Amino acid sequence: MGAWKLRLLQLYALANRPSGFAACQRGTVAILFGLALFPVALLVGGAVDYSAAVTKKSRLQEALDKGVLAAAAKGAADSALLNRYLNANMPVGISAISATLAVSTAANGAVIYASDATFAVQTAFLKIIGMNSINVGAHSEATLPTQIVTATFNAVSAKGAFAKDMFLWTKNASGAVTSKQTVLSYRYGVSGSGTNPPVGAWTVTFSVPKYSTYGVGMVAYQDLSYQGGLINPVEFYSDVNSASFRKTGNCQDSGGAQYNVEDGGDNDYLDFVYTMKCALGVASNSVARLSK
User: Fold this and answer.
1) What is the rounded distance in angstroms from the CA atom of residue 273 to the CA atom of residue 70?
2) Does the keyword Transmembrane apply (predicted)?
3) Is residue 114 a contact partner of residue 143, using CB atoms and an 8 Å limit?
């Protein structure tokens, strides 16, 4: 037999041996699969750990929100109250944590209650690469809205044959009047005329209850005999009868807001001129709202 024929027979036998090329190929695939299995398992396990951390972070945020709202409702920088609510609503398995409540006042007078809280979530799978925990945190803020809480008035001048009462009103969200306080008066009669309190004298400070909207108004006693009788009262509201009121400035300004009022006579807007100063704050029974 020729040498080349012998070589062909040897190659054919080698290709058909069970422990030959195919067996070597199967062994390589097994090794590669084994090497790839670890990172795949680590990836799946890491996803489980991070999913658990996200769930506990959500519970932490909920618990912190409840604590901040409770402190804001009390109206005090009560970190102990915050932590009682916080730990009472924490996920099972989380040890007690402590947070501090910070209270600040915004430029518009709103009171802001804020806190941050963090804790570590123990891992089940990632610890095999040395990551024993995942830190999660939450931030919460509750705001008590500001409004005008006090107002004072000063008569600048008044004239005319109609007696008048100036008042401060508040309305709820439905537009219904919830309060109406007489703050200044003008009387005209044969014995003379004048304001109460007198021109230049500030009135006492009036408390302003919780409201949706507020404004000023006037009761003009339209006695057409021009004797200053307190008859035929006609009410004017600054939101409904805006043409009867001219306002300059804002009541929060150092000099307050000035109102020029027209009672329906000669349209000179000098029937009552007065200033109104007010202070911002938080009304009683105000409800805190989460802002962050």
Assistant:
1) 45
2) yes
3) no
* DSSP at 24: H
Name which of 144, 162, 139 is nearest 227 in CA terms: 162
How far, in Å, CA of 239 to CA of 154, rounded? 21
Q: 125 — alpha (psi -120 to 50), left (phi > 0) or beta?
A: alpha
Q: Are strands 192-196 and 257-261 parallel, antiparallel or unpaired?
A: unpaired
Mean pLDDT of 62-83: 86
Q: Kindly state the average pLDDT of the residues 228-255.
A: 94
The rounded distance, in Å, linking the Cα atoms of 135 and 57 is 9
**Which tokens go with 238?**
């600054």
Q: Where are the beta strands (DSSP E) in the chain?
A: 101-105, 111-122, 133-144, 147-158, 163-171, 177-189, 192-196, 206-207, 213-221, 233-237, 245-248, 257-261, 272-281, 289-290
- Structural contact between residues 92 and 117, judged by C-beta atoms closer than 8 angstroms: no
Q: List CB contacts of 115: < 8 A, sequence separation 6 or more.
A: 64, 67, 68, 79, 82, 99, 100, 101, 102, 139, 140
Tokens found for residue 191: 């014995």
How many C-beta atoms surround the C-beta of residue 48 within 10 A? 13
CA pair distance 156, 110, nearest whole angstrom: 32
Long-range contact set of residues 2-9: C-beta below 8 Å, sequence gap at least 24: none
pTM value > 0.85: no
Instruction: Determine the straight-line distance between the first and last CA of the chain, rounded to whole angstroms.
Output: 92
Query: 225-256 b/e with 16+ CB inside 10 Å = b?
Result: eeebbeeeeeebbbeeeeebbebeeebeeeeb
pLDDT value at residue 37: 52
